[in-house]
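Q&A FORM
Asked by: J.P.
Topic: structure of ATP synthase-coupling factor 6, mitochondrial

PROVIDED:
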Amino acid sequence: MILHQILRLSSLFRSAVSIHLRRNIGLSAIVFNKTKELDPVQKLFVDKIREYNTKSKQAGGPVDAGPEFQKELNESLARLQWAYGEGDLTKFPEFKFEEPNFEETPK
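REPLIED BY: S.T.
REPLY: Here is the structure written out as C-alpha cells.
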C-alpha cells in the first residue's frame, strides 16, 4: 500500500522506480539462471570447452596441431626475433619499475 502511494507522487519518481525495479528483476533473473542447470546447448558448449582444456594440457599446447602448424609457428617466431631482437617470445615480458625518488636534492 505504501509502495502504491509512493508511485502516485510524481511521474518522474514513478519512472525512476520503474527503471530501478526492472533492473533489479533483470539482475535477479540472471542470478536464478546461474543456480539452475544449464540448458542442453550451453551444457554441450561448456563440456566441449572443458574437453579441449584437458586435451590441451595433455598435449602441452594446441590440440590436433600437425607439423605444418609447428613449422609456421617456428617461422613466425624467427621473423619476430629478427625484427625485435633477442629474448624468449613465447613468454610474457617481465617489467621492473623502480620507485621514483621524490626527495628534494639541495641546489
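FOLLOW-UP: The mean pLDDT is 78.
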